[in-house]
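Thread title: Can someone regenerate the structure for this chain?

I was given the following input by a collaborator and told the matching structure tokens would be attached. They weren't. Posting the sequence so someone can regenerate them.
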Amino acid sequence: MGKYTKTSPKFFENIREIYGVKERRCSKCQEWFPETTEYYYMRNKSKPERGFQSECKKCSIKRSDKIQKDNPERTKRYKDSHYLKNIDIWVDRQRKYNKGHVEQIAIKEKEWAKNNPDKMRKYYKNRQHKNHDITDKEWKACQEYFNYTCAYCDKTLEQQYKQNNHQFHKEHVDHEGYNDVRNCVPACTNCNSTKKLKTIEYLFKINIIPTFTQDKYDKIILWCEEGYKDYIEEKPPYRIKRDRIYREDGTYYMQHQLWTVDEKRNLIKVIATEIKKKDLKVHIQKYLKAYKLVN
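Best answer:
Regenerated them for you:
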């Protein structure tokens, strides 16, 4: 029953009934409130017979906020763990919220981007460098190798389309690894969100995805070490990227960019830009001759 039983005088000092309405005095602020879920949290939702907490909701929230601010690392670990264990619930909840608040979200995103230019530059730089450079033939072979299912769970391509209206994501097995097919596996939206920058060793160890079994782990490792060799294609020592260029009036046009790349197919430097892709051919020849890649 806790520190005080219902026969203790202390218990009845904080309980009263006025005109048939039961009231409880908050142990923190000493204010009286109706003993309902509007003003008090239950001690245990699954065991309502245990009654309500001794402090009101406002005081309970203040206490919780203080604990979270005083223990940021512990709070982050708890939130991450809770999110990952209930990712399907959170994704559905977020999707429903996004559908009903499209305009508000767009306004907030623009304001955040305007107030955080450094973070936006860092985000786009990372996004550019972490785009896979994979041909359609390579991607088809990769999906076929994993039987057109998510590499981390048993979700099929049809289920992925039905739930998320999107094809499988091209997931980096090693976030700092190659940007070609040797470091790519198909992943559903949920598994893609769960993995983020984690290594597959850590993902397998903490067992967040119950269907990520030893067999699936071994299959991913086998693909990254040996399986890709039969399907990888030779690529030129450059990459062509298409990007949106915004005008002052808010409209935009598409621009093709010629980038140098490193051994991992990461983008390094823009060496030419043109409106049409075919106009980059002259720049490509100059680049190849400058580095003696062609005669």
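The two ends are 88 Å apart (CA to CA).
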